[in-house]
Amino acid sequence: MSARLQKGFTLIEIMAAVAILAVITLFSVLSFNAITKGWEVSTEYMDKMQRTDYALNQVVSALRSMYYPHNGEQSYDYGFQLTDNGDGEDPDSSDLIEFSKTGSAIIGNRNAVADTVHRVQVMILEEGSREWGTEIMKTGLYARQCPDVALRPKDDDVDYTFANDEMYAPVLIADGVVGFNCRVLKDQEQAKAKAGDEPKFEDEWESSNSVPYKVELTFRVADPEGRSYRTNTAPVMRIIRIPVFEQSQDGAATPSDAEKDGAAGGRRGGGSTTGGNRGQTGGGTRGPNGGRMGGGGPR
Length: 299
Hints:
By secondary structure, the chain is of the alpha+beta class. The protein has one domain (42-293). The protein is built from 4 helices and 12 strands. The protein has helices at 11-64, 188-191, 245-250, 255-264; strands at 81-83, 96-101, 118-125, 130-131, 134-135, 140-147, 171-175, 177-185, 214-221, 236-241, 285-286, 292-293. A 5-stranded antiparallel β-sheet has the order 1-2-3-6-7, covered by helices on one side. A 3-stranded antiparallel β-sheet has the order 8-9-10. The radius of gyration is 28 Å and the shape is elongated. It starts with 10 loop residues before the first helix and ends in a 6-residue tail after the last strand.
């Protein structure tokens, strides 16, 4: 009886099978890594977008709680100030805004001045820089705050304004925000743009003894891979109607009456738009990036 012939795999066949398996494994690993990387980048981007949205909502709330005294006069101590440094696509070209407000927005409800009137500055600061005596550890949206002029200690030897660089250190609101641009509508007439007209928001605000009619805020978020999102991505933007606009024009209209008169285009009191500060000129101050802030004369 003859022995049964058994056929096995040759060395070439085994090597070919191993090579095919290696190629399949390599593609599987690369695909898995690409999917994992995409998931991580998307998760980090969404996290930064949420933090940016939170920070923007804080600034929006602060602007809506803007304070202006009801004393029949205009005042540079309570006016809105804008430092225009550029288009706001990176820290160096980001704007700085300053205004008076009440409430806990931006500063937190545990802050000692949360229940009183106070001034705030909002800006973008870059990691590694040193601003107002503080080394910046993370690039992001920062704020400074100081007490209202009426609440500051009376001391001729100490400057309790923002001009005292080291007295009010910047506090981080949200990291990952790499750009900030602010534009303003000066009054109701600018807001009445006809269909097809270009928006009348402007980059400059010189009337530092009053506040604008509306403010447009645009924040830009850092790329998870270290780049900066620019015009090819959707910016985070808000437009805010400032409640005390009419009051800042003549210092007399109450908020309730201002809303009614604003809709009709009129004003209560008939006061001069220059109020009790006629003849003054706003000297202004400089922001952290060298831009001019304020500096305009009365409206």
